[in-house]
Amino acid sequence: MVSKAACLLPLVGGVFGQLDAIPKGFQSDQWAWVSNEDPLLAAIPGAFNRTVFDAPSAANVTDQRVASVNDHIQQSSFVAYDQRFFDVIGPNATVEQLQVLPFQVHEAPCYVKESSQLFFVEWGPPGGSENGRHDWQYLLDLKTNNLTRIKTDPPTWNVHGCVYRDGNMHVVTDGGPDETGYLAIIDPATLKRTTLLNNYFERPFISFNDIELDHEGNYYLTDSRSGFGRSLHPFNAPTQPTVYFVNGTNMRIKELAMLEGNANGITLSPDGKTLYVADTGASESKPARRNDQGPREMWAWDFATSSHGAKIPLLVNQRMLSRAIEYFYDGIRTSSNGLIFAAGGEVVDVIDPESGWTLGSIRVGGNGNDPVNIALGDHEMWIVGKGGVWHVKNIKERLSHTE
To answer: Which residues form the SMP-30/Gluconolactonase/LRE-like region domain (predicted)?
Structure first.
């Protein structure tokens, strides 16, 4: 049982800050446990304020004890809000930055286990080479940490989402200078790209954002304003942000849901019965701005069943599962036990799929380093985002639930 006794933090301005004590065996310089059982955090003395886009530990506070707490959190790799987070992550986990890259959005990570490689991209303006428009991708050798640029055959413009399955990288794109967004597969050995679908009954997509696959090989795609908002292609947005189902055998396509905000990250529960989608409508485009009143929800739906009890591509029981404590969620993935790992702001949050409680956060250092998307291994994960690539290893709970 974890002790609830407070641990004293370094002296700041003559007073001590307090946090809940971490369990034995966990490193105090890597961990913080924050809960409202501590009266100091439940009812903060003095003045305090932050926006919804800022981390809690970046809040402006006047009480030096709270400032000391925030300083400790800023130096931590793991922040627990629930005792279960310690059991998920375990005492041996560490966070290491593998690649230091420009503070440009990096997206679409795919972990290719057989060759120990990580595929990902540098995505979209502003910044970056080619004004953020790319017909190349990155491939990181996880054994040597050697990073190379690659081009598929034919070249693939502006990849935005990726899932690795059955020897192929399944990708979605925003489209490029002369093409709309599409679904494709890439052979990681030959880099041969095959386009599977590029239209909805001869209507172009807006710009695909992310992708998920179920155990039967069917696709779930988010079509968003993100690529359109950054002018990655010359086409107008023909519809609202939409979630699509695509039959993986015959490419038959169906609209599942439409969002007034922006359809972004997407993932399935391990049993395939629940679909989760991150809404990033708080990030507006044309004109580009962040709206603190805009959508930041993570939505959950269940799948309907036929009269014979079979799952069908029809969503029911929509509910708001969670809203990010800071910023909004971009890439989301589920672990083998159904926990949701959600990247956004300065952290990757771990969320309970039933209650929506945030169990804890994995931090990558702040100071502009922002997770955008993730790829899960068995007891490890890779984070890509603004600032580079990070590896979280020696995680206690098994994460990957795909073969």
So the answer is: 140-379
Q: Which long-range contacts (CB under 8 A, 24 or more apart) does 221-224 make?
A: 221/161, 221/172, 221/183, 221/246, 221/266, 222/161, 222/263, 222/264, 222/265, 222/266, 222/277, 223/181, 223/263, 224/262, 224/263, 224/264, 224/280
Secondary-structure class of domain 90-393 per CATH: mainly beta
**pLDDT by residue (tens digit) across 293-352?**
989 999 999 999 999 989 999 999 999 999 999 999 999 999 999 999 999 999 999 999
Distance CA 229, CA 223 (A): 12
Structural domain boundaries in the chain:
6-76, 90-393
- Show the tokens assigned to 7: 């641990």
Other residues' Cβ atoms within 10 Å of the Cβ of residue 335 = 20
Contact 290, 53 (CB under 8 A): yes
pTM across the whole model: 0.94
**pLDDT by residue (tens digit) across 10-24?**
433 333 344 668 899
Residue type, 227: G
**253-265: average pLDDT:** 96
Number of Cβ atoms within 10 Å of the Cβ of 99: 17
